[in-house]
């Protein structure tokens, strides 16, 4: 029979430990069994790495969901912005609304040029200032000063027309001043036949030093008038 070799073997008297056999007999040397390798004979526990992997996957999935939601919200915002822009473009703004045309005053012809109103053509020959002017029996004193417009009136119609100095207006700072007339004025009331004309003057009582900008000629009190600069 083959004799066992020397070494550590389970103790026949106590299987929970080892006992040294010297090749011929059991010695009094004892030792515990070596601990089994990790995982041998024990249930396998899920590794932390797998848990970490699951957490990472879940976290990444959540981030993707958030990014999709943000992108969707951004697209909605863009759509809303485009819709608002289209709405704003379709509604005329106050700035783009048609503005009312500004009031344009009567046209004013250059100084010295002939102008026409009704059956008369008018031309300014010159101007003068004076504190007095001839009256019926004596000189007439101005309340301010007389501004005298020397003019030529021509009948361009086909019948006689009466010219009256009282129908003429002097323009100062946009305001109209009536003529100062009397029976002694040669232009107080004068009939002019077709193709003929007359020279005369029209006086206006104005504030001293005032600067007239234009005179407005009329062939009658109902005509539209024609302005010429002075």
From TrEMBL:
Residues 112-226 form the DUF4352 domain. Residues 1-52, 75-112 are annotated as: Disordered. Signal peptide: none annotated. It comes from the Bacteria. InterPro entries: DUF2510, DUF4352, Immunoprotect_excell_Ig-like. Keywords: Membrane, Signal, Transmembrane, Transmembrane helix. The chain crosses the membrane at residues 56-74. The keyword Nucleus does not apply. Residues 6-38 form the DUF2510 domain. This is DUF4352 domain-containing protein. It comes from Mycolicibacterium paratuberculosis (strain ATCC BAA-968 / K-10).
């Amino acid at each position: 029979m083959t004799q066992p070799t020397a070494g550590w073997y389970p103790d026949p008297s106590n299987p929970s430990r080892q006992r040294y056999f010297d090749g011929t007999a059991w010695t009094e040397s004892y030792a515990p069994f070596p601990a089994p390798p990790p995982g041998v004979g024990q249930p396998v526990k899920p590794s932390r790495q797998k848990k970490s992997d699951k957490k990472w996957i879940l976290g990444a999935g959540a981030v993707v969901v958030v990014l999709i939601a943000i992108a969707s919200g951004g697209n909605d915002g863009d759509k809303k912005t485009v819709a608002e822009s289209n709405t704003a473009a379709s509604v005329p703004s106050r700035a783009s609304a048609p503005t009312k045309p500004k009031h344009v005053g009567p046209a004013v012809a250059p100084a010295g040029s002939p102008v026409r109103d009704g059956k008369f053509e008018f031309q300014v020959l010159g101007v003068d200032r004076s504190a007095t002017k001839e009256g019926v029996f004596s000189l007439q004193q101005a309340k301010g000063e007389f501004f005298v417009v020397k003019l030529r009136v021509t009948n361009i119609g086909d019948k006689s027309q009466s010219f009256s100095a009282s129908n003429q207006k002097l323009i100062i700072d946009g305001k109209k001043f009536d003529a100062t007339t009397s029976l002694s004025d040669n232009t107080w009331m004068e009939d002019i036949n077709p193709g003929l004309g007359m020279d005369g003057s029209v006086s206006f009582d104005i504030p001293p030093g005032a600067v007239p900008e234009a005179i407005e000629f009329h062939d009658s009190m109902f005509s539209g008038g024609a302005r010429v600069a002075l």
